[in-house]
Amino acid sequence: MLGKLDWSAIPFDQPIPLGSALIVFLAAVAVLIWVTVKGYWPYLWHEWITSVDHKRIGVMYIVLAALMLFRGFVDAVMMRTQQVLAIHGPGYLPPEHYDQVFSAHGTIMIFFAAMPFVIGLMNFVMPLQLGIRDVAFPTLNSVSFWLTATGALLVNISLVVGEFARTGWLPYAPLSETTYSPGVGVDYYLWSIQISGVGTLLTGVNLATTILKMRAPGMGYLHMPMFCWTSLASNLLIVAAFPILTATLAMLTLDRYLGFHFFTNEAGGNQMMFMNLIWAWGHPEVYILVLPAFGIYSEIFSTFSSKPLFGYRSMVAATLFICIVSFMVWLHHFFTMGAGADVNAAFGIATSVIAVGTGVKIYNWLFTMYGGRVRFDTPMLWALAFVTTFIIGGMTGVLLAVPPADFMLHNSLFLVAHFHNVIISGVLFAAFAGFTYWFPKAFGFRLHEGWGKAAFWFTLAGYVLVFVPLYIVGLLGMTRRLQHIDMDLWTPWLIVAAIGIAVMIVGAACQVAQLIVSIRHRDELRDETGDPWDGRTLEWSTSSPPPFFNYARLPYVENEEPYWTVKQRALDGQAPAKDESYEPVEMPRNSPTGFVAAFFATLIGFALIWHIWWLAIVGFLGAYATFVVFAWREHGDYEIPADEVERIDRDGRAAQLAWMRKRERVA
């Protein structure tokens, strides 16, 4: 009836996961009770859970990312403290639990923290920057989000029902085959990533189609903001790379469930093929994350330098160059495989060459600031920290691209420090910068600057204190994933890294305090203008928050900084164009399709993990019925009357006009 599931799946003998699960359960119950008592369920159902508005879905992606970022950060704290406490001793995490912790940490941070954060920002901002009302496939957008949430849920269920993979954040074969991993941990990994991967692939198709086919009138490709260009490149990479991940994990699933031999040690299996396939996805994945981050930095450097982005066309060329070459460097992850000097040299050269594209961007950002009127608000601080720290991570990456050096440093903590150096400064700092930058646009009030700057400085200091020592112990010979330490030479550096993680905890606490203080003082921090940063792109031409239809009339775009052009014309005394008549706006109806499909996907994933075949069949039938009902719906859109559109639009424009007149008097 329940397949392999029985009471032995609950870790009654392990107080840490059991206690953590109890805390999460009680917190979830408390939230559900609070929502019920306050009567918020109808609001949540109609405005959020079933919403197909790209802005709402973007916010939900970011909320999911924040929750998973917290979970992944807790795992990081456990790893750093375990290694300090396990010097000449066992520490507090047994080996089998420690293996699950570092595997879950990488999986959660990449798939369920970084990816949803980046996709959430793209979802929220990109249609506004393009001057359009929604993405190409709104309901598919909702399905994508809820499938991602399903994957995150399955990973967290493994905390208390069964176990998670002990193979690392990528389930290397043959370790992940049933011979060496007979439990359900790898199965939790496979189904959570497969389900969320489908959601991510649908997102890639959706957002790429939106950028290619749904821009505002007059907006040619070379009139798009840089964030839209980098979003386009990222989503094209998703469309090209994620099928590789899906196929690779499908082959591993066939090995585990049906006795196939794609990646086994016997019967013709080839485990090195798994390495090639997983990294043929894995390295483009790095650029799927970092390219939108580069777009965020481009917007911030331009806005807070009060200048157009330097070298716009060269930035576009560098973005597309990185997009293409990212598929030609994957073998540098395993130079030690034994492919030979010629193959290693080719991939080493390609890895060094791809750094040229990033170098072009670095110089363009520096020249954007040069001669500008630079303002050091919190988003700009994150951007400046990125430039200084990312250069170090990039240089260590070029070092690792040299095969002889990589032979010495492979699987050492030097490699771990390099990867975190690049991802934290390149992606996480961009996520924090973009969150702070566009928060007023989403909610109508700014985040508190004092707490924001405190969070920035503590996070930056802790980040340096954690990973500089890891570079050093890596050079001293310390390999990754050690559950206990017996080398006194490494001890001082591990203690410094543990102090660094404590400083990062303070930074995270400051970010939570920033959010709480900002909500409590939202009236003082209110943005009446829609343009709190003196922005240059179209999203700042709307009210904060924007109306659900984004634009009453689609804007006409003449250059890559359309809103800045409008503001400058107003300051120069040119009369704005005469108002045209308003027309009705057609918008997509809310749909529970995504939420219901995710419910059945959760049943399917859980059932396949535990071999509960009848439940898997029920899940498949339910998911199929959900999409049949959606496909046969009679009315997918509704019409907003012209007078309602006019009323909402004029209210927002009145506040903006008052601000422009005030700015003109100051000038």
UniProtKB/TrEMBL annotation:
Q: How does it sit in the membrane?
A: Multi-pass membrane protein
| SUPFAM superfamilies named among the record's database cross-references | Cytochrome c oxidase subunit I-like (SSF81442)
The compartments listed are: Cell membrane
> Transmembrane segments in this chain: where?
16-37, 57-74, 102-125, 145-169, 189-212, 232-254, 274-297, 309-331, 343-367, 379-402, 422-439, 451-473, 493-517, 592-609
- Record domain Cytochrome oxidase subunit I profile: where: 39-558
Q: Identify the Pfam families for this entry.
A: COX1 (PF00115)
Q: Which keywords has UniProt assigned to this entry?
A: Cell membrane, Copper, Electron transport, Heme, Iron, Membrane, Metal-binding, Respiratory chain, Transmembrane, Transmembrane helix, Transport
Protein's UniProt name: Cytochrome o ubiquinol oxidase subunit I
Q: Which gene encodes it?
A: cyoB
